[in-house]
Design brief:
Elements: H1 9-33, H2 37-63, H3 71-78, H4 82-92, E1 102-104, H5 116-120, H6 131-140, E2 147-149, H7 153-166, E3 170-175, E4 180-186, E5 193-203, E6 206-215, H8 224-238
Antiparallel strand pairs: 1-6, 2-6, 3-4, 4-5, 5-6
Length: 240
């Protein structure tokens, strides 16, 4: 007798759900990129976590002797759950990051935004300084400090402007008189926008450069803002 005729419905439903979750993934990304992140993020989470649950269910079925005749069918249907599970693994394997989204190289006197207030929109995260966030940052990212450069303030400002441009940031405000640059960086897949302010000023030690990077949406950033600041720091120092 053909085992396909007696295949449990659970295996077919495993495939249906896996395909459905796979289709939700691009839909969630398009929803987020359209600006409807309040809807898109839950859809993305459902697709990723649901895919992991289906993989766990598939493993349980594969280990059950009762489902031995249909192991190939289970594996074929499980393939559709792999992308969502892989995306969740990629998101969670980058380290244990605190649930913060506002990172600065100067925690005692963080650079402040001016034009960003108009660019971000009413539903964006606040730009107000939060001391609890600062404490969490100092514990999680102790390597992020003020960059001291031997360049003059004008030279450092121009280099900072060039580095920001090379990194693909969209600069929407620059004022060489105050030494301030404001820009936005857009993530490639989701289209999330994070605002950055660069502050350049002189001191007895040399020219000081401080950066602050703040996500417009979301409670945590999975380390993205700290990574962005490090990228700027490394690129700036390579040119010295």
């Amino acid at each position: 007798m053909n085992p396909q005729h007696n295949m449990p419905r659970l295996i077919n439903w495993l495939g249906y759900f896996a395909i459905g979750l796979l289709l939700i993934l691009p839909l969630s990304v398009l929803t987020i990129r359209s600006g409807q992140w309040q809807l898109g993020l839950p859809l993305y989470a459902i697709a990723c976590f649901g895919s992991v649950l289906l993989l766990i269910l598939a493993i349980v079925l594969l280990l059950r002797r009762r489902f031995t005749p249909w192991r190939k069918d289970i594996l074929l249907r499980t393939i559709f759950a792999l992308p969502g599970a892989a995306l969740l693994l990629a998101l969670t394997s980058g380290g244990n990051h605190p649930m913060i989204h506002d990172i600065s190289t100067d925690t005692a006197d963080p650079p402040t935004f001016t034009v960003a207030l108009q660019e971000r929109g009413a539903e964006s995260n606040t730009l107000e300084i939060n001391q609890d966030v600062i404490r969490q940052q100092e514990e999680a990212y102790p390597d992020l400090n003020t960059l001291v450069s031997p360049l003059s303030t004008d030279e450092a400002y121009n280099r900072a402007l060039q580095v920001a441009t090379n990194l693909g940031w969209d600069i929407y405000h620059q004022d060489s008189n105050t030494g301030v640059i404001e820009a936005v960086d857009t993530t490639s897949i989701m289209g999330f926008k994070d605002d950055i302010v660069i502050r350049v000023r002189s001191s007895a030690q040399g020219t000081l450069l401080d950066l602050r990077s703040v996500s417009r949406v979301g409670e945590g950033d999975l380390g993205a803002n700290a990574k962005r600041i490090r990228a700027f720091r490394d690129a700036f120092q390579q040119q010295e």
